[in-house]
């Protein structure tokens, strides 16, 4: 819940290489390579990759333009 006047920012996180790969339409191997090279907007948290869905989508929309 938010109070009146406050903005609520909901992060929709995508965890694990397989879920990120599914979202971006790549294989597990391709995605793992992109993540390891720092070519995707994601971070490793406790040994697991995590990314914001909106940032991944924006990243690919910007690349396509």
Structural class: alpha+beta
**CA-based shape:** globular
Secondary structure tally: strands: 3
Mean pLDDT: 87
Helix content: 40-55%
| Low-confidence sequence ranges | none
Report how far the terminal alpha carbons are from each other.
37 Å
Count of the domains: 1
With helices defined by DSSP (H or I, 4 residues minimum), what is the helix count?
3
Order of the strands making up the biggest sheet = 1-3-2
Largest sheet: 3 strands, antiparallel
Report the portion of residues in β strands: 15-25%
**Gyration radius, rounded:** 14 Å
Order of H and E elements = EHHEEH
Textual characterization of the structure:
With 65 residues, the chain is α+β, with helices and mostly antiparallel strands. It has one domain (13-64). 45% of the residues lie in helices and 18% in strands. The chain is built from three helices and three strands. The chain has helices at residues 17-24, 28-36, 53-64, and strands at 13-15, 42-45, 48-52. A three-stranded antiparallel sheet has the order 1-3-2. Strand 2 and strand 3 (48-52) form a beta hairpin. Helix 1 (17-24) crosses helix 2. It is globular, with a radius of gyration of 14 Å.
């Amino acid at each position: 819940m938010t109070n009146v006047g406050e903005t609520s920012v909901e992060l929709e996180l995508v965890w694990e290489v397989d879920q990120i790969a599914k979202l971006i339409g790549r294989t597990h191997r391709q995605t793992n390579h992109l993540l390891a090279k720092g070519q995707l907007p994601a971070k490793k948290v406790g040994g697991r990759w995590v990314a914001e869905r909106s940032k991944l989508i924006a990243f690919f929309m910007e690349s396509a333009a």
